[in-house]
Inverse folding.
């Protein structure tokens, strides 16, 4: 993490200072502070504290007047932070300490009551959930925007031929629409995984205290309701001692980033002179400092490269938690930097990928030409014979024999003469040649989810409806 200069003793004593006669060493303060990372949760912390103050008044632990002072003070801090008139004091230990100290400066003794009945342990667990409940819908919306961009490409290319690959070898012809719909469906699952994770963040941990709840008559359900949660966590110890919601989010983001990386790998390949399927916009390409002719797919490569960062964030969280006893341990302070980095990286990559793919041009002629080599229609020859009553395994052998003959004659299957087909099987008729053109191979594949135009159009409508129903 970048250094931010030497931190001196805070003007406001640390929240835990009462136990100590001697203040911490300046180097120790600098080492333990987290405000440079957790400052982004300032508004979430204020939101949680406002709800907490209202709950304290509701349960008569503090007076209505004190609660109003706290709420008004917190709202003024929020307003000033948003306007920029209040700058965060980076000598504070963390964002919670800064906000509480600022509140006390503004409203006096009442400010000291905002922390009644809670610990920073449940406060942090709450703030992180509030933050993720804000962030996850943001990235979900960016995923929907990308799905929309892909369905638009698909809609315009339902008959644009492109070779399909297995083992990076020519396999069977499909269409560009079918291929980008495959991308889109993986993004649908990414959206759904993120949605599922929100369900497990729908319970509020506030009121769990440090680990054992509180002896005060707190109303956790009332406070949870004020914050928009569906209920409260079931065990105070569990509430503050786990970060599985952070790990789950990082895991889901890693899967999403993995999908983007795979898409980008294909784009990098397709942008090469050898493939030349795609022409990326100059706005989303770079040149070379030495070779004037170069047009490099750097942004696709950067997305692919940053996948390692996101994986690293996930493994950092898993490693941090792997041997921690219950309940809270200071190791858990290190969760936020990894979590926030994964959030920032994936969100930026989704947005960049969307702009990059939406402005790309497709070389339809080059893609169609690529479908003419590599014997992509061999399976369709076998299927032709199956329709004539031949067992598939036998038909597979006949097709393989024809491929060998074509290889020996340095030609394509459709260039073999009809007599050769007849010698391999008497079931062949002259219509075989119209059945094995690349377009015919695609259009006969009308199974659900197949590449035939009518089936891809169904996929496109389903994808559009998925996004529409959410929005």
């Amino acid at each position: 993490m970048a250094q931010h200069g030497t931190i001196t003793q805070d003007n406001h004593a640390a929240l835990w200072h009462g136990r100590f006669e001697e203040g911490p060493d300046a180097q120790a303060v600098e080492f333990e502070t987290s405000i440079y990372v957790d400052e982004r949760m300032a508004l979430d912390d204020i939101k949680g504290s406002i709800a907490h103050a209202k709950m304290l008044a509701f349960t008569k632990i503090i007076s209505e007047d004190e609660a109003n002072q706290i709420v008004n003070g917190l709202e003024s801090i929020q307003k000033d932070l948003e306007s920029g008139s209040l700058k965060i004091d980076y000598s504070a230990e963390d964002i919670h300490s800064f906000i509480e100290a600022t509140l006390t400066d503004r409203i006096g003794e009442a400010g000291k009551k905002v922390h009644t009945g809670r610990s920073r342990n449940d406060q942090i667990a709450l703030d992180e959930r509030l933050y993720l409940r804000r962030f996850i819908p943001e990235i979900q919306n960016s995923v929907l925007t990308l799905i929309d961009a892909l369905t638009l490409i698909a809609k315009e290319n339902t008959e644009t031929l492109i070779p399909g690959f297995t083992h990076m070898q020519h396999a069977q012809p499909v269409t560009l629409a079918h291929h980008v719909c495959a991308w889109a469906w993986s993004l649908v699952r990414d959206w759904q995984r993120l949605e599922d994770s929100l369900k497990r963040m729908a319970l509020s941990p506030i009121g769990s205290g440090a680990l054992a709840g509180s002896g005060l008559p707190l109303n956790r359900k009332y406070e949870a309701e004020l914050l928009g949660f569906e209920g409260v966590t079931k065990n105070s110890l569990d509430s503050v001692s786990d970060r599985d919601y952070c790990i789950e989010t990082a895991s889901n983001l890693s899967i999403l980033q993995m999908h983007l990386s795979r898409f980008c790998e294909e784009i990098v390949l397709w942008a090469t002179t050898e493939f030349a399927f795609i022409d990326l916009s100059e706005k989303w390409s770079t040149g070379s400092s030495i070779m004037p002719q170069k047009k490099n797919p750097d942004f696709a490569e950067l997305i692919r490269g940053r996948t390692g960062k996101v994986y690293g964030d996930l493994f950092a969280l898993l490693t941090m938690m792997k041997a921690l006893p219950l309940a809270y341990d200071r190791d858990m302070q290190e969760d936020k930097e990894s979590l926030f980095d994964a959030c920032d990286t994936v969100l930026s990559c989704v947005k960049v990928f969307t702009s990059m793919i939406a402005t790309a041009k497709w070389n339809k002629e080059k893609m169609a030409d690529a479908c003419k080599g590599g014997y992509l229609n061999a399976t369709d020859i076998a299927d032709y014979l199956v329709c004539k009553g031949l067992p598939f395994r036998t038909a597979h052998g006949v097709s393989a024999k024809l491929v060998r003959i074509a290889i020996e004659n340095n030609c394509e299957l459709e260039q073999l003469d009809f007599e050769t087909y007849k010698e391999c099987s008497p079931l062949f008729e002259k219509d075989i040649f119209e059945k094995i053109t690349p377009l015919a191979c695609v259009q006969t594949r009308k199974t659900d989810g197949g590449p035939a135009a009518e089936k891809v159009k169904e996929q496109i409508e389903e994808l559009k409806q998925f996004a529409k129903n959410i929005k």
Residues 1 and 158 are 48 Å apart (CA to CA). Residues 1-11 have pLDDT under 50 and may be disordered. The first strand starts at residue 161 and ends at 166.
